[in-house]
Amino acid sequence: METxxxxxxxxxxxxxxxxxxxxxxxIGIGDGGVGCCCPHCGAEGRWVYEWCWQGKRHAAMAxxxxxxxRSIPVTDERKFWEQLxxxxxxxxxxxxxxxxxxxxxSMRDQYGDEWVDKKIQETLEKRRxxxxxxxx
Length: 136
Ligand SMILES: [Zn+2]
Description:
Bound molecules: zinc ion
Strand content: 15-25%
Helix content: 55-70%
Structural class: alpha+beta
Distance between the termini: 38 Å
Oligomer: single chain
Largest sheet: 3 strands, antiparallel
Strand order of the largest sheet: 1-2-3
Number of helices: 6
Order of helices and strands: HEEEHHHHH
Number of strands: 3
């Protein structure tokens, strides 16, 4: 298992990488607590979204996040990380799929981004099929 320090170091490296490439990278959702303000517009709220895009780090609440990221393609992977961060920020239980993908995401050092991204795509696809069948 990774230590928290290792995880934080890896996360910083990924943020730095995203800032350098200019790619979209979803960092996560933080709990600002009741009465927190949107770092973008100052509106009152609680959950602060953080992401990287076009070489800059951004933070805003859900409404502003949606507007500010409108031009960025919504992939299954992006949706997954947004949903997962919401669950984690709100202390909701994670599913087996969530844990699988988090586990894959932690293996980038050993197996490389290409392999990990492919496996995550495959897992998301399996989850999509599973969810479609579950709906009868
Ligand atoms: Zn705002």
